[in-house]
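Input record (one chain):
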Amino acid sequence: MSLRQAHIKRVTQETRIEARLQVDGTGRADIRTGIPFFDHMLTLFARHAVVDLKLRCRGDLEVDAHHTVEDCGLVLGQAFLQALGDKKGIRRYGTGFDPRNPLWGEAYVPMDECLARCVIDFSGRPYLVFRGVKDLDYKKVTRPEREQDMACAFRFGLAREFFQAFANEGRCNLHLELLYGQEPHHVVEALFKAFARAVDAACQRDPRIAGQIPSTKGQL
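The corresponding structure, as predicted from the sequence alone:
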């Protein structure tokens, strides 16, 4: 069985990114983006999606964190697209259901007072639905100790930019919803964990359709 892995480099005037992904991993992560909170989110994504991910990014954080976060989403989407290849035999849909434990349902993830839900379809068609979080868009998730560090703080609204970029380059339908919650740190963490669980489920190989494309069109 071939390894599902990818190596992506992206260099622009705003960011320089290199990522290595192994879909059939053990949850190991080695992340350096210059934004500690974002590093934490990508690390927990790798752990809960059970993939191995190494990512390095040097971005124009003196301007803002936006380019770094968005471009990392682009690169991660490209990595999954490359690693999954023709997508033969994958479950394709990720609702958090784990065939090894039929008692698990959709990818609902609690984080203290928050509850987030994610569903993904590696359909070849990019689309993002991001619901239930509009009232928190301008809150800071992290508070830098120094005012001059404010530009590279991770703002809540950047989470949407990351997921939009992933959906675009990963060519997937990605539906994320905050059912309830208030604390921005908890909200973003719940969204990333739900995202990870759904990705894990969608990438699993289904032995019943080994070698087959999971689509009536014959391609994804």
